[in-house]
Write a structure and sequence with these properties.
The structure is a homotetramer of 279-residue chains. Chain A has 279 residues and is an alpha/beta fold. Helices cover 35% and strands 21% of the residues of chain A. In chain A, strands 5-4-1-13-14-15 form a 6-stranded parallel beta sheet, sandwiched between helices. In chain A, strands 7-6-8-9-12 form a 5-stranded parallel beta sheet. The first copy, chain A, has a two-stranded antiparallel ribbon with strand order 2-3. Chains A and B meet through α4, α9 and α10 of A and α4, α9 and α10 of B.
């Protein structure tokens, strides 16, 4: 069924990014037309993504590069933002060690904290380190730095924050990659302490999106919102639990020929199913 | 340190109920004075509890019975309310099977749905059943009804909702009891489908409390709120993750002589520690 | 392919019981002919089952009742026997509390210990209790006795033994039942201590069968043995890991139309697949 | 209490290696005297270790280098040997991909198979690859090669074997390191298939040691054997479950000041506790 036909029953659409708006080969052809269609119908839209690899500005710039100007930084709500808000509220000041690319350090620095790559930390002199953040799977030496993270947490009691709880992601059309959420869970199990994970299916990012949308639409209700995602275990169960309608698209993680079986075996039931948001 | 001395730095206090306001022997002596102290200082308070065993009215009545009138139903926010809102938004109409006491069916009925005890369900004629809710550990035959719940979920794809994710609770001064969250997790593992769990540490109940408090205090910020609880793995990590300050009290699950060790081994660090909310 | 055609390449066959030799409607028609066929070919056979609900004598009697005399008690190797050997070696003397039918107490009593149903235990006077054994899902009040087991283990440090690690079992042609392994895991998680689980896929029962078979066939090698089972996650992965050949039969837990998919999704690859051991 | 005083009640001693016979600073001073003491008393001994980083010959050579000749290769029973026997029995021929040091490939090659480092595998042409083995945390590029292992297993159904199930190990006096068992579990969770894990606490390595010891002592019983280890969750629970007596030594993973608490919190109860095997 046509995406816009379904979407026009709602006032706000939340999109997952990867597998919905873009793929390993880039922005979906036809995305511009779909966004125009939403705007013509007066429907607001936001991106809710599990991602802390780069800043909202950089996320927006990647769309802008392809001529799409409607997905500005204020619409790019990521699990990284949830982590940043946590750091701001709970850590307040000092040095924060991180695993990830230099770009991903944005989520520490924009909280007013000093971001230090774990590689530059001396675990024997870690008194000034206030927290450790798992941001992205890229940008560090897994062997050296995961072992260093383990020993830092074994020595000093500090919050360990995971800014993207995803276990894997599609690295190309036919390859998967281990995501930072998996690496963090592995270290958590060895350390034996409770890490703090951010990202769908947890409801916090949905609350954030809801609050943001309400700033423009004062009387917005949950039933006015549609979450569109390609992954049952994050987008769909998260949206369901938050109490909003959900649409599974078959342009990403969930292959068309497997959708029915996966819905049955997981028990996660989307409100709608649609091939893609583009026609 | 004195509870009120710490509390007066905040505008709103969220209390866990069991282990904080009451114990197996009843309401804490001195609770009235503490609530009066908060009101004198203009501090609002709400209860955030993992509980779907009875309605907010009944929860309020239990305090009222002891002369405490400031904890009315509108202040009793429970995981049951989260489940009710989910049912209302996502199931909408029809029959909903449940495990729990007749009293706990409130959370289905107040969503405008028909609550049917699992014992009355014929799993061979389950077409009309729209969802299954795990409400409370009491009020049903564990052997008969847990097996029936298992077979209902194996036969028909429907949402399984857990209205209280707690694993155990104190049944008396020196005895624990298996809570509905444990029973639900056991069935979930056998069925192999994803159940939807409500309750602390999940952030949804904190969001709900925050929104409610903002209705009276428009400019309320997260830093204005203190979560007071006796359990590190629900109250404290949940409050921390939501971005509010937390206080561990030693009047319930966390024994005074074990608090420091448990903070160290779990890595869950409360903002404050206080013997009790009464002096 | 014909079972005996495959079996004749081996010197010893290990059978799972339920789903292989019998079903909820009783002994498989044709079982006698298959066992005769094995004996004509000089092939030894044993039963390796996850079961502690009754003694080997009673297991043998159930076959004898249907005229099958070749499955005597000495051929009925069960997870209960593993638990009995543990109790004999490690507990040695005293009282042992249990959850299960009176019949299942055989595995405690034959270890020279005194079996006491958990319902008869006073947890306030539990000094004489040396261990707790989870034997069978039947024969006790789940609500009363699981809570009592929980509190016994919280009060006194003692070994907790699970004599059958299965999570569920087929209760009839179209119904499943929660098995004692699931109940034990639930209590283990709340108590936070390490229980000792017996049963396939753990290699201990395979070692036991191998040693027993070697008593008659001194030069027996692992490659001479075929494990026949209906469950990938117990019979087949257990046999594979122990280093013997495995045959998946489609007469029980693994339905014919789902076998290929389940092999692919679990990654558990049997050496052979056969519709049934009877033709 | 003196180790030899306890040991002389047994006919065979199984030693864990790391934390018992050696530490990060090398062989324990006094080990020679202890082994001499055992031999004077006619007590046999074997090493049962979770290790697939190098061959039994190399393990023996490391003791020999320090003048200890009684710990020859035939006494070095490792989880690697269990994996080798599995490969020999179940894979039989062809190429086997591995993660680990070149030295650890011994456990593939001595099974008569061709060992290929995962880095040399082209996952697009993986038809000839019969299995994947996780041998050791060292000797490969974690980022490149763990992602490659993930994609190999997602593309082709093959057994995934973990030759050492340990989660972490002491890298130096005050540092821990992530072990191959943790890395394998992380990949297993993403792939969603069942890997085959070898090593204590699983009983297979104890069975192997028992069989080996019986070759010299025909009438050896389980009660004649003492397992000596420094880790409750591998050495002690494994030995307990196998039905032999166990001794916890405080020279490794379990610190003297924490032993009692850890026994209580884990519920894993050693038969004996001893500071060290040397006096």
């Amino acid at each position: 069924m046509d995406f816009l036909k379904i979407a026009e029953k709602y006032r706000v659409v939340f999109f997952d990014a990867y597998g919905v708006l873009k793929s390993s080969s880039g922005i979906l052809a036809g995305l511009q037309a779909t966004l125009d269609g939403l705007q013509e119908r007066g429907i607001e839209f936001y991106i809710l993504s599990n991602d802390a690899s780069r800043s909202p500005q950089e996320m927006a710039a990647a769309y802008s590069l392809h001529g799409i100007e409607q997905l500005g930084e204020e619409r790019n709500i990521s699990s990284g933002i949830m982590a940043r808000d946590f750091l701001q509220a709970k850590v307040k000041q000092g040095k924060v060690a991180y695993l990830g690319k230099p770009n991903s350090a944005y989520y520490i620095e924009s909280a007013g904290l000093e971001a230090v790559p774990i590689s530059e930390i001396d675990i024997h002199q870690a008194d000034g380190i206030k927290a450790l953040v798992f941001l992205d799977d890229d940008g560090f030496d897994w062997y050296q730095d995961l072992n260093k993270a383990l020993n830092l947490l074994l020595r000093k009691n500090m919050p360990a924050i995971v800014a993207n709880s995803d276990h894997s992601y599609p690295a190309s059309l036919d390859e998967s990659a281990i995501a930072i959420g998996s690496l963090a869970e592995m270290v958590e199990k060895i350390v034996g302490k409770n890490f703090i994970f951010f990202g769908k299916p947890d409801s916090q990012i949905f609350s954030y999106g809801f609050e943001l949308a309400k700033q423009n639409l004062k009387d917005l209700q949950k039933q006015d919102i549609l979450m569109v995602g390609d992954t049952l275990t994050t987008d769909i169960i998260g949206g369901n639990k938050f109490g909003i309608d959900t649409m599974l698209v078959l342009s990403g993680n969930t292959l068309p020929q497997k959708a029915r079986l996966q819905i049955k075996t997981t028990g996660i039931i989307p409100t709608h199913i649609c091939t893609s948001i583009v026609s």
